[in-house]
Description:
It is a single chain. The protein is mainly α and 619 residues long. It has a domain at 151-273. Helices cover 61% and strands 2% of the residues. It has 24 helices and three strands.
Amino acid sequence: MRHWVPVLFLIAAAPSTAAPSTAAPSAAAPSAAAPSIRGTSTAPRTARVPEQLTQLAQDITYSSARLFPMLATALGIAGYDDQLNEPSESARAAYVAQLRRWREQLHAIVAAGKQGMSPVERDDARLLEAQLVASLNSLLVYQQDRKDFAAGANAIVNAIFLQFQFLPIAGSDGAAAADVDKAWADITTRLEKAPAYVIAAQRLAMHPGHLFGVVGSQELDGAPSFFNGALTDAAKAHYATDSGALQRFVRARDATLAALAQTKAYIDAHAASWPENFAIGRHAYDRLLREEHLLPFDSNDIERMANDELAHGWAEEAWLTSLSKQENRPFGPQSGGGIAPGGAALIDYYRERIAELGRFVTQHDVITVPAWLGTISVQETPKFLQPVSPGASMNSPRLFAALTTGYYYITPPTSLEEAAARLDMNEDFDRDRILGTAAHEAMPGHFLQLSVARRHPDFVRRIQSSSVFAEGWAFYGEEMFVRLGLYGDDLDGRLFTARWERVRGARAVVDPKLASGEWTYRQAADFFARETSFTQQAADAAVAGIATNPGYVIAYTVGRLQLEQLLSSYMQKTSGRGSLHDFHDRLLSYGSTPFAIVGPELLADLDKPASVVRAAANY
């Protein structure tokens, strides 16, 4: 799973919270006079359209960053790390109005230039429309900002963690000692402002939900270990000769921790009485699929493909189980390349496996790995994130930051041997399981793909963050590596892949069931535990995450299917001229955009060499 990658216009850094009314307005419905963003390319192209679309996209991006400084931090936009906005009803209403004005500007650009717009320009307009619709829907239809009482507190924790993670190092990447001093001053200043921010955000939580409260409280539970541990240790080292600055940091830290503790205590005392309000309704869910993800499917289609995927995962496990019995080779480390080392050696072991994947990708001619690709830092998952990230996750380079390092987070098992004995799904205990997860998260999964996408010269493409594309690509790679022989004759890595296929299928069953209100949380969690080999506790946590973020987890199932459909079209059109390497290079050259955009553009560019397509994408 990919964490902390910002969805640009969902105001992740600007919490607000309450259940949607059944009469909530439809943000996505254009007025009768609003032009369609689709056009026909019959007249000479309008020279100003690309510039207008770029200017609009930049205005949306940088204005949102200015309004919501924690979003700027997440995106790597400099100059805002010491700031916080003040959440309020008036600010919320003003942003809704601004989103509508941007949408009107987009429609005007399309109306004036549609007769001369190129296919790429029309696609860029569709992408901006989808993003603006998603932002409006998040505030007017789903209203998750009004349901999550802990959103403001957890936003602070995540923002400070990002600042800590990306602290400059004097003498590295052009950073000077003054830059390090400024970064620490920014952390302290933001911490000083945090208590007021948390309180203001809670005023917007007019309809807090039970499940949102449970999840939010669990996340807050781990915050003190970060603030009092790694953050404070680093502050003491930096301020070793400046006791006044250190005392100021400590006061700000303690005040923030008190605000977080008060938030958690309030949730723990009241959440049991809060309603379950995570469902958004089937109609809203279907519109999300169609208008935000640009999918040609509705919720019924999603459930059908999810059940097919679930059944295939069970069939794969049946075949592998038969083979295991025939060959008298049990699943686990014995048929998974051996158990991983424990303790401090585990981090280095992960680094070695990622390097092994890089060699495999090159030797098997899978895709171009560019010389400019950054490095991957393997670290233990911070405790405050472990409740929502029990397995591995990748924090790819921030969109606008100069630093190209990605952070691969792992949650080491308490006991590798015990995890192996139960074939734990979230605790990678042997070589092949570590390889499988790293293929998804790092190489050639999220780290490579997102590193390529952030370099795209088309600003509209650069700011895209389609979960369907990103998760579809990473999921597709898991089975591809099985077929290409990454695990040889080993069984455990293949079982791991088959079981994670079941997980993705189960997720895509659960997501529309919960979002529509057809299933309760308990029904979904019990189904999930039964179908995935997750422990009940892990299933409960996974389903809580699904319920509070509708429309995300279907990305794996839908994205892989659409990718394989595009590969099929590519193979037919190229006959014997195509190759897997050529297809993959082309695929990553259009940004993290929905397949409704990538597919037609990729097929239209088949007359160009892949090297030309890659060059146009700065890949």
